[in-house]
Amino acid sequence: MTAPEEPQDPALTVHLHGSGGAIKGWVVVDTLVDGLAMGGTRMTAGVTEEEVAGLARDMTEKFTLAGLRIGGAKAGIVADGSDREETFRTFGRTVKPLLHGGIHLGIDMGVTPADRAVFFEEAKYDPRYRLGAPDMPIDWRTYYEPLIDATGHGVGVAAITALEASGRTGPAHVVVQGFGAVGRAVARFLEDRGHVVVGIADVQGTISADRLPVADLVAITDQFGAIDRTRLPQGVKLSAEPDAWLDVDADILILAAQKYALTAENTHRLRAGLVVEGANLASSAAAKEKVAASGAALVPGVIANIGGAASAALAVTRVVPFDLPAEARKAWVFDWVGDRVRQNTRDLLEIAASRAGNPLPELLAARRKER
Ligand SMILES: NC(=O)c1ccc[n+]([C@@H]2O[C@H](COP(=O)([O-])OP(=O)(O)OC[C@H]3O[C@@H](n4cnc5c(N)ncnc54)[C@H](O)[C@@H]3O)[C@@H](O)[C@H]2O)c1
Questions:
Q1: Among 163, 182, 180, which Cα is nearest to 277's?
Q2: pLDDT confidence of 7, banded at 50, 70, 90?
């Protein structure tokens, strides 16, 4: 018989049709742990039930690997973002029983903190309070907003840990694909530790040089992660070819943009010996096989990019020492994320070195037993 935490099907799939208005979407609760689950809400014109279910499964894996006692969930709304106030009010009314019943829904692609405020308010949901759990002494935004770089921090820790495991010392050359919240934080993290960023890509293309000045590039990047091409530093090279970040000679490639950036079609161009996924599903299954066959190492997103999700889960499960002052609380969360990412990266690479094939199922099975 399958163990309760090894589900083949989601614990719960709710089809959303709206209450007091029409919407189309789903909430998939992949697993429940102690009656709790959480995940982000995605709103795109093309989101499907299958996509939401895949993302909910990813959340389960992240929490299992991190040792957090909460299940994985995800919500998807099929909409193009017009009339968002009405959409999120209807969404809030529709998912109200779920939010109050232990299914915490946050932000994902296409959904902003302002949208979250709308659906929380419409559902009269405040994550500070839950039946049977101690109250959070601070509000959600006060807790969560200072933790914006938690994901980038974890991705950086994964890169450094894998680099150390490979026996390499000295500055590594790094390419960062995607210069949004995650990409910028990783680039700063690695530069601060003496590594050299030689390539950065946004949706318009790739910028490269022997050494890119990260802070100067952050200063000319907008909130959507677009770098202003009219204000670039002297001496950088530019390419508008979509996958040019693959051709920059580097030791580490950080994937922090869209899903399936690495595919079976482009992986043969990979030059880095180490790939770290900052984005979810950043490489396809076939790409992962090709990376492994080439002898390069890959740290998957379910290990590396847990920072944002883990920060939220630590609060929902009330593990955070809320009595700490703001700076110390932030440091506590960053250390917690760093420790989990470091341990999982080390253990994954150890399994990978011991035998052929995908090492992740073995690590997941070990963590399931420990939880
Ligand atoms: N923010 C988080 O805490 C977090 C946590 C886990 C996973 N993720 C995932 O990581 C990815 C990055 O997150 P973010 O918050 O930094 O996003 P973001 O929207 O802030 O930035 C995305 C960046 O990727 C670039 N980009 C988009 N398409 C590209 C392409 N085809 N080629 C090159 N660059 C491209 C954009 O120009 C931008 O610089 C997303 O897929 C997100 O879902 C984010």
A1: 182
A2: low
